[in-house]
Amino acid sequence: MVNVRPSLTTRIGQLELAYPTLMGSGCYGTGEEFAPFADLRKIGAIVLKSVTRLPRLGNPMPRIVHTSAGMLNAIGLQNPGIEWYLERELPKYSGRPCKLVGSVAGFSIDDYAYVTQRLAARSEIAAIELNVSCPNVASEGETFGCDPGLTARVVRAARAGTDKTLIVKLSPNVTDICAVAREAEAAGADALAVINTVRGMAIDVEAWHPRLANVSGGLSGPAIRPVAVLAVYEVAQAVKIPIVGQGGIETVTDALEFFLAGASAISIGTANFTDPRVPERIVAELEAYLARRGCASIDAIVGKANVGFATPHQYEGDEG
Amino acid sequence: MVNVRPSLTTRIGQLELAYPTLMGSGCYGTGEEFAPFADLRKIGAIVLKSVTRLPRLGNPMPRIVHTSAGMLNAIGLQNPGIEWYLERELPKYSGRPCKLVGSVAGFSIDDYAYVTQRLAARSEIAAIELNVSCPNVASEGETFGCDPGLTARVVRAARAGTDKTLIVKLSPNVTDICAVAREAEAAGADALAVINTVRGMAIDVEAWHPRLANVSGGLSGPAIRPVAVLAVYEVAQAVKIPIVGQGGIETVTDALEFFLAGASAISIGTANFTDPRVPERIVAELEAYLARRGCASIDAIVGKANVGFATPHQYEGDEG
Amino acid sequence: MATTDHTAAVHETTVLERHELAAGVIHLSLDAPQLAGATRPGQYVMAIPPSAQTAATALAVYEAEGKRASLLFFVTGKRTRELAELRCGDRLDVVGPLGNGFQCMNNARDVAIVAGGVGIASVLLCARELLRDGARVRLFYGARTAELLVEAQRFADAGCELVLTTDDGSAGERGFITDALERARKPEAIYACGPTPMLRTVARIATELRIPAQLALEETFGCGIGGCWGCVVPLAGHSSQAPSFPPAVRGGSDVVYARICREGPVFLADELRW
Amino acid sequence: MATTDHTAAVHETTVLERHELAAGVIHLSLDAPQLAGATRPGQYVMAIPPSAQTAATALAVYEAEGKRASLLFFVTGKRTRELAELRCGDRLDVVGPLGNGFQCMNNARDVAIVAGGVGIASVLLCARELLRDGARVRLFYGARTAELLVEAQRFADAGCELVLTTDDGSAGERGFITDALERARKPEAIYACGPTPMLRTVARIATELRIPAQLALEETFGCGIGGCWGCVVPLAGHSSQAPSFPPAVRGGSDVVYARICREGPVFLADELRW
Ligand SMILES: Cc1cc2nc3c(=O)[nH]c(=O)nc-3n(C[C@H](O)[C@H](O)[C@H](O)COP(=O)(O)OP(=O)(O)OC[C@H]3O[C@@H](n4cnc5c(N)ncnc54)[C@H](O)[C@@H]3O)c2cc1C
Ligand SMILES: Cc1cc2nc3c(=O)[nH]c(=O)nc-3n(C[C@H](O)[C@H](O)[C@H](O)COP(=O)(O)OP(=O)(O)OC[C@H]3O[C@@H](n4cnc5c(N)ncnc54)[C@H](O)[C@@H]3O)c2cc1C
Ligand SMILES: Cc1cc2nc3c(=O)[nH]c(=O)nc-3n(C[C@H](O)[C@H](O)[C@H](O)COP(=O)(O)O)c2cc1C
Ligand SMILES: Cc1cc2nc3c(=O)[nH]c(=O)nc-3n(C[C@H](O)[C@H](O)[C@H](O)COP(=O)(O)O)c2cc1C
Ligand code: FES
Ligand code: FES
């Protein structure tokens, strides 16, 4: 046992965080909405809602459907566009007691380059997350994140526009997430966010049509946690840069799965819709866990479950 | 309103089913295990556990982990191999009051061809399902189903060995499931089973190792339903052959989502572990639903929710 | 409408009473003095699922008096089913009061309140406040069938005149409540809550009658507090309730998507651009 | 062991009594006459989650007498938490009795029952049957801490001699129950249920003492009735309990994976090939 209080500080590239918890893009507004119910000082960073070059009204309603242990969303990247955002929104966010990460979405390489450069230039923004994996804007949005080569081009273009920490958010809707991860790393990403939502849909069985106006949406929440933990586990073996693990984290046990799989920090999205006290509770319980296990810091457990321990007994070949 | 009892019979290729419900491969044993608790006469067909050319002991324990609204399994295709199976197992199954579908797994094109031909030759077997999508046998098992070209080769090889109905079971763990579906259709598949389990894992946060001996496993149950419904919806637009929809079906509402998305039949797996009365309940409630909606048969609702109805209002281009 | 002040908080409440008013219609009274004290008509809470199940549920505060705040809800899915299983003495955490409620302080002396189904839960506080201010209040209340016309008596006791309809004619007039509204004497103002199709009709009627209408919208929420943009409705670009957002041009006029949970849930009918 | 007859069925039962024996340890008595009548020692049920939550939970039948069958369980996760919320009068459907139980009819006059933690739930019926047959029964019962040594008195009342241990020494001797077993007088036979590491030690002790041991295994189940092969344990290829399966050669001898739920859950220690 260590007697000093375990340290929860962590680093993602040059981004220094007092707590290893980020609030997921699109799930925590600007922070202000949650401030009456959650202590923003106990949060590592808020990843702001993704912003695009031009304004977007987003998808029509319904945008949200609740499913078993999860929810589908198809917001469609509603945002006022980068100019309005820089002029009228961002100034309001200064003075937040936690770091702010800007999130950039786009429909061309040039979009990503332009918006990243404009956003990263602002002092309110501590780091940039590239959302190359939004499943809710027809095919274009996710095309980038589903193609290793395109991902690399987006990352290089964005990298050219800033020295701030660049986090690339990966899509789980691919055959081989590690291939995309490796390209993003090689192209200059400082960190990876793993994973964005999983594509899904729900149908209204009385009205006989999809329940989301956008037909399909992104599945988040506890339902996708096993998918996300595996993605972190595999990506952590494929790259050397740090990982921000996310997908269905609701409790300290969930959070620990991600750290043990290889994430250096975690992101909490949908769980804030269940209970705004979740982030603070997880941080307190992480601290207690580390103390109980005699760990001086959160770093001490990162990736600690990431070894194959199975020795399968098979008749045929060596398949596990 | 129709006054006659709605018909639940359906056809999958040449396979005629009294009920549009199959019991998922690996989830319903040989049927005998469930017979004390479920009326097998009220079931369309049982898809038997996948069989391989050589015997397989399967993975070490633990093989199962329960997750939020789902479960992970990594059985590892435990089976006695085709020779033993044909000689000692299959004879026991004759006299089942429902159809039996044989499931074939393999590690080479030749495996699939050989086992399909041997199995399909047996009178107990009404149709063959090709499991090209088992996520629990290291990389080999799923490689076939994740590659459209390999899938086509497996299907052609199996097709050459039998005239019985050939169902190809697709993996959701791909970037583009429709590409695989189209290849399977072109190669001679009579129907598609959509979807097999989604890859995932869970970690023991006290012992610091994966909870499954095989590290990763296949996620099934309600958690994956939105993913499965979308896969059926998209595949139904890509191919003309019938689809057996599956993934998290537990209630009649769940089942209806799949029919409305475009499935001609459904398969029930994990829900049998929740309550063995589920298949009979779903059939009764399907009948009541069709009667209430004035439908003479289950065919009348297949694909009825499969139209885009969203007219998104965007600033940029035409992204949804 | 009435703008948010910052009394919203997470309240750890205890169930005082639970009544099943009809099959699947639950009335839960909570020991929640701070919530009861802070709530204004038309506001709601996000009820945190006792077993952490994905998302909290938006529910109107039905009554708020002394230490007691109550919820009235229909069991429609997993989350309301779970809330329906609460028993006296059980704990329920809620976030609230949330949203901008009805603006009841106007000068109309003859008002109509229109409630469809569970929309009834959002209008009791509003009715009481209007009556207290001396207005004559007619409640137009419609439901599918007689037994779902819950709590009508409570409104009558409070002093409302009742006009009831059911889809099947099992109580009140047969038909939609908006039909009854159209046939009735013209009110000076309307306050309404119910399913979106009903509210659209109310909006049309109000436009035709050239009277103001305040509509409390209900859609599936994500966060319920303005963080996710999952609950929008198009407003006229000039609306005083529009969020900071560059208006889009649609059908020749300016439109902005506002968050129902944050900018609403109560909107002026003539500023909606459905 | 004792082979399955086909009395297993789905039973719709009602909760008669509910007691929390210690924090997170629940004893539920069910009105389940047919189940109670059919159950033999070492059998279990699959308890269907009241709110359909993925998979039923395997629980030993703790008591079975008259119209009453009871369950004794620890709250370890979502499913047991849900079962713990049941109250008197609530309905609980269970499938059972399942599995091949203990074979108690042997001629041993001085037997040891070894229970670790919640393993205690699987051995009460066995103890009663052995006592009824005139055997002298010593219960070796270990738990983490004193308050988790639930129900010890009931075994004493039934006529067992008790040897208790706790990991922390808060009751009985400090240490593992298998240590106490090793120090004790040699029994003629052992019946055991508990965590796998404990059962492995019991198996080793039985081998060393050259006495028969029957072990009731508990692992995470899928279906619980033999349909999914999610719950296997390696058996000697020659075992009478081995399923129809071509044996694999491992470490020089034949091995077959048997299903704990179907071929077990009780296995002869010397046929296990862990
Ligand atoms: C501001 C506000 C205030 C509200 N106040 C109240 C109130 O006071 N009382 C009240 O009862 N409600 C109120 N509501 C509505 C309530 O929040 C919703 O009904 C909530 O979604 C219930 O959650 P649920 O999980 O029980 O149902 P959900 O699972 O979210 O289901 C909601 C609806 O979807 C339907 N559905 C589910 N699956 C399918 C399917 N596959 N096909 C077709 N339909 C399906 C259900 O039948 C149900 O009608 C309010 C909402 C808002 C926004
Ligand atoms: C034949 C048989 C008879 C049984 N009889 C009884 C009985 O009589 N009484 C009884 O109490 N039990 C009994 N069991 C055990 C019981 O079935 C299991 O404990 C069951 O899994 C409980 O389900 P759960 O959903 O509550 O817990 P689960 O969610 O299945 O969790 C099981 C275990 O996993 C742990 N866990 C969950 N998530 C994580 C994580 N992320 N990291 C690390 N650990 C984690 C939990 O802490 C818990 O210890 C029996 C089992 C069998 C096979
Ligand atoms: C309503 C909603 C809106 C989201 N919007 C965005 C977004 O704009 N950009 C982005 O990168 N991710 C977005 N996400 C994804 C989340 O940031 C997160 O990666 C994902 O939901 C998985 O985590 P969770 O299960 O904790 O929510 C959104 C998720 C939700 C639920
Ligand atoms: C324990 C278990 C074993 C399975 N074994 C097989 C198998 O051998 N072959 C196969 O094609 N699918 C197998 N599956 C997949 C199921 O047949 C089904 O496609 C999947 O679980 C999704 O449906 P569900 O959510 O209804 O279970 C298995 C699933 C489970 C849970
Ligand atoms: S529900 Fe999240 S913004 Fe309204
Ligand atoms: S749990 Fe399914 S075979 Fe034992």
Give an overview of the whole structure.
The complex is a heterotetramer, with 2 copies of chain A (320 residues) and 2 copies of chain C (274 residues). With 320 residues, chain A is an alpha/beta fold. Chain A has a single domain (10-315), classed as TIM Barrel (Alpha-Beta Barrel), CATH 3.20.20.70. In chain A, 31% of the residues lie in helices and 19% in strands. Chain A has 9 helices and 16 strands. Chain A has helices at residues 82-93, 109-120, 138-146, 148-159, 177-186, 225-238, 252-261, 271-274, 278-292; strands at 10-12, 15-17, 21-23, 45-47, 64-67, 70-73, 99-104, 127-131, 165-170, 191-194, 198-200, 203-204, 209-210, 217-220, 243-246, 265-268. In chain A, strands 3-4-7-8-9-10-15-16 form an 8-stranded parallel barrel, surrounded by 5 helices. In chain A, strands 5-6-14-11 form a 4-stranded antiparallel beta sheet, with no helix packed on it. In chain A, strands 1-2 form a two-stranded antiparallel ribbon. The longest helix of chain A has 15 residues, at 278-292. Chain A starts with 9 loop residues before the first strand and ends in a 28-residue tail after the last helix. Mean pLDDT of chain A is 92; it is low at 308-320. Chain C is of the alpha/beta class and 274 residues long. Chain C folds into 3 domains: 5-98, Elongation Factor Tu (Ef-tu), domain 3, CATH 2.40.30.10; 110-217, Rossmann fold (3-Layer(aba) Sandwich), CATH 3.40.50; 219-267, no CATH class. Chain C has 6 helices and 17 strands. Chain C has a 7-stranded antiparallel beta sheet with strand order 4-3-7-1-2-6-5. In chain C, strands 11-10-9-8-12-13-17 form a 7-stranded mixed beta sheet, with helices on both faces. In chain C, strands 14-16-15 form a 3-stranded antiparallel beta sheet, with no helix packed on it. In chain C, helix 5 (177-183) runs parallel beside helix 6 (196-209). The longest helix of chain C is centred in the last third of the chain and has 14 residues, at 196-209. Chain A binds chain C through residues 26-29, 33-34, 36-37, 49, 55, 57-58, 61-71, 73, 75, 78, 80-81, 84, 88-89, 221-222, 250-251, 270, 272-277, and chain C through 6, 8-10, 48-49, 52-56, 77-79, 93, 95, 219-233, 244-246, 248, 255, 257, 262.
